[in-house]
Design brief:
The protein is built from 26 helices and 15 strands. The chain is of the alpha/beta class. The longest helix is centred in the last third of the chain and has 21 residues.
């Protein structure tokens, strides 16, 4: 195997700690497999080597490449994820089985029951459950005292009750979740130095891939496991650390030389993936971050095509231009699979997906696209429209009766279909309630002849639904803009439709296509890849489009601290370095009829040329 000088120095390392800084496309997997091979060639038993990575797929690929390199069918080298390796240790000590591990489905069911018990009137339950599960992980993995943790998704006392009941149920039923696997391993090693010593003797050589994604408890366990020899070989790129929201701590890698002052260090500085133009501009971007290891990457490739930085009037022009460019690229003989369209969040891809559908261009969505029309805000809007169109279903009245609050009791709606006459009868003794019912009836009549776009704006401002959204955001501890932007997006989809029926038909076609996408996502079909920046990590494409490079999106509006902004810059850097030959960075001047700012990142790349 031909290695360059940096790769050779890293792979030849045998004893003691070593940090390998591996830039994008620099061959880190090659270095890990070659170094594992070199250890065995030095007479080190393969059973004493542990290779850890973050996903089962990465561990499997690493093992397959190692076996091919060694021309073997099997080996006693342990390749696994942190969870897999630590579970193996617990299983050996406590005779655990798969029955003791809490499945994700059961975890979700349990958390849903607790949320239903302690949180009232929750509209966005799935979103809340995802944030709750993440915060529970943060408390466990960060070993945070529960009394000192302040939840971002609910009141502190409610979060603590849910956490305590969740943990009590787990203990009673002898279950561990994925975070407990690490917590239990950490406690085991602290309490039982004899057991720790057995595993230290077994795994004398430890290699860790994607080290920049490690969290505190994983690092503490690995540090214990590596003693006393400290043959700890870490490979990663601090510039590609983009998972702080999951508990990853980039500062762990930055502090590694302090924790191991005698550690060797090698920089894999040759990018074999991207053209000189892409490498140079991406280096200019990431160089703006202060908390990083200084490194300059180079490439063995020519400068290549200039990065296509384009500013459009609005996102419609942006998407139309991109589709035209993609069609020209395909006519040159390239494959769909050579193309990726990247977004900061998966909700941002809706307009591109609709246009790809319109042109019958196949695509595959890595993350699974959340259906805008399944969002509870969209369901409220559609319900108002159904009622304006003549529906009188009890379920639909119940959905919007108090959005905004009209003080209509649930018991007012007893029949399967509701007549306004019956509502007036229920409240015949209360004139002030009649006025509210009359206003609702009037609003539905006013909406009936409107275009979908007009009706949405009437719901928002005429009926007062926006005020309701602001109140709900305050209750849920979320920024009102998050819900108001959903309204903007819904209104945007309705532009150009004269009749509600036509818009409803469009929504159904969109839903069907997404359903088909989700069914075929696992199949390796030839299609353009649509992905978030997060999910694009580790991938590469000939031709990459990054859309909506505007302040508020890239970097994301929630990034207020310096650490947040540096993470956003790393995320954009990851997106840029997915491209081999062609990279397109698009921004817009206006979105939802509001002016937008071009991302500061584009200015950093192009030295204020735009």
């Amino acid at each position: 195997m031909n290695l360059n000088e940096s790769q050779s120095r890293a792979a030849a390392h045998i004893k003691g700690p070593m940090m390998v800084l591996a830039g994008p496309g620099s061959g880190k997997t090659t270095v890990i497999t070659q170094r594992t091979s070199n250890l065995i060639n030095q007479g080190i038993p393969d059973s004493s080597i542990l290779v850890v990575t973050f996903t089962k797929a990465a561990a499997r690929e690493m093992k397959e490449r190692f076996l091919r390199l060694m021309n073997l069918h099997t080996s006693q080298v342990t390749f696994g994820t942190f969870h897999g390796v630590f579970y193996g240790i617990l299983r050996h000590t406590y005779q655990l089985s798969g029955q003791n591990i809490l499945s994700e489905d059961l975890k979700l069911k349990l958390l849903r029951e607790l949320v239903d018990t302690y949180c009232r009137n929750i509209e966005d339950e799935n979103d809340l459950l995802e944030k709750l599960a993440r915060e529970i992980s943060m408390v466990k993995d960060g070993r945070i005292d529960l009394s000192h943790y302040y939840s971002a998704c609910m009141a502190e006392d409610v979060f603590r009750k849910i956490f305590e009941e969740y943990q009590a149920w787990m203990n009673h039923n002898r279950k561990l979740d994925f975070d407990d696997i690490m917590v239990w391993t950490y406690k085991l090693f602290l309490k039982r130095p004899d057991i720790l010593k057995q595993w230290q003797e077994k795994f004398r050589y430890i290699l860790i891939d994607e080290f920049q994604d490690i969290n505190l408890i994983q690092y503490d366990i690995i540090r214990m496991l590596a003693k006393p020899w400290n043959n700890l070989f870490i490979v990663g790129d601090d510039d590609q650390s983009i998972y702080r929201f999951r508990g990853a701590k980039p500062e762990i890698m930055l502090n590694f030389p302090k924790d191991y002052p005698d550690a060797g260090q090698v920089i894999l500085d040759m990018n074999y993936r991207s053209t000189g133009e892409i490498v140079k501009k991406s280096q200019r971007l990431i160089g703006e971050n202060e908390k990083r290891f200084g490194k300059e990457l180079k490439t063995n490739r020519e400068n290549g095509i200039k990065i296509d930085i384009h500013i459009f009037e609005d996102d419609r022009q942006e998407v139309e231009y991109m589709i035209g460019d993609i069609r020209k690229y395909l006519q040159e003989g390239h494959k769909y699979r050579d193309i990726a369209i990247l977004f900061r969040t998966n909700t941002g891809s809706r307009k591109s997906v609709e246009q790809l559908m319109a042109y019958n261009i196949p695509f595959q969505i890595r993350d699974g696209l959340p259906n805008l029309y399944e969002h509870w805000v969209a369901k409220d809007v559609l319900t108002y429209m159904h009622l304006a169109g003549g529906s009188r279903l009890r379920s639909e009245f119940l959905r919007i009766a108090n959005k905004p609050n009209r003080y209509l009791a649930r018991t007012s709606f007893m029949d399967p279909e509701i007549a306004f006459e019956s509502l007036y009868q229920v409240y015949e003794e209360r004139q002030w309630m009649w006025e509210r019912i009359e206003k609702l009836e009037h609003d539905l009549k006013v909406m009936a002849p409107m275009t979908p776009f007009g009706a949405i704006n009437y719901i928002r401002y005429g009926i007062g639904y926006e005020g309701y959204l602001k109140e709900y955001a305050q209750y849920r501890r979320i920024r009102p803009e998050e819900l108001l932007e959903i309204m903007d997006e819904i209104a945007d989809t309705a532009r150009g439709f004269d009749k509600m029926e036509d818009w409803f038909a469009h929504i159904e076609r969109y839903k069907e296509e997404l359903k088909r996408q989700n069914q075929t996502r696992q199949q390796k079909s030839d299609g353009i890849t649509i992905s978030t920046l997060h999910s694009s990590k580790g991938l590469e494409f000939d031709n990459v489009y990054i859309l909506d490079v505007n302040d508020g999106i890239i970097p994301y509006k929630k990034a207020v601290l310096d650490a947040d902004m540096e993470e956003e810059r790393r995320m954009f850097y990851v997106g840029m370095t997915r491209a081999k030959n062609r990279l397109h960075l698009y921004a817009v001047q206006e979105r939802y009829e509001k002016k937008t700012e071009i991302s500061r990142f584009l200015n950093e790349i192009s030295e204020l040329e735009i």
